[in-house]
Structures are given as C-alpha cells and as structure tokens.
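Service request form, structural biology core

Requester: graduate student, group of Dr. S.
Request type: structure prediction, single chain
Budget code: on file
Notes: please return the result as structure tokens.

Sequence provided:
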Amino acid sequence: MAYEKLTVSSTALALSASVYDRARSVLIRIESNAVRYRLDGEDPTATDGILMNIGDVLVLSDPLLLHNFRVIRVSEDAVLHAAYMVDAAVAMSLVTPPAAE
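Core staff response, request fulfilled:
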C-alpha cells in the first residue's frame, strides 16, 4: 500500500507516477472543496470535467486510468487523499459496506 495527499489548485495535476506505477488500483477521496477530473489524459478546467464534491470517493482499478487521471480545483484549493493498493479487491472492500446479517 501507498498513500499521498495532494493539494489541488488552479493548475491541473496528475497522481504521482512514482507512487501509482507500483499500484493496481487507487481510492481517491475529496477532503475539502470541489474538484473536476478527467480520465482521458487531458486537463480538466474549473468548468469542464467530472465534478467531485467533499466526501466523494473514486476508485480506479485500471493502470491506464491511474496514468490518465487529471484533476483541478473548481474555485478554492482542494485536498484529496489517494490510497494505492496492490490488489484491486482491497480497494473495493473499503467502499463497499458489509452485507446485512
């Protein structure tokens, strides 16, 4: 497992290659302020891209998507947390609630 905390500002940024190159999946959670992201390798803008709000979670389990992920803030700087896993099944267990008994 690996972890990184990123501050998202007015310039689009990617996940850290030195971290995601070893991972099979990543769980990304938005800690503060809205962001927009793209998965095609192109930079999002404050008005174009998929919107994520505080508390939203995104799980990427394809190495190409980890490589292509780009993110930018909507208005104020934002913080995102990324937890990288070697096994994609571990990432899914973090966001899937246990079955009711």
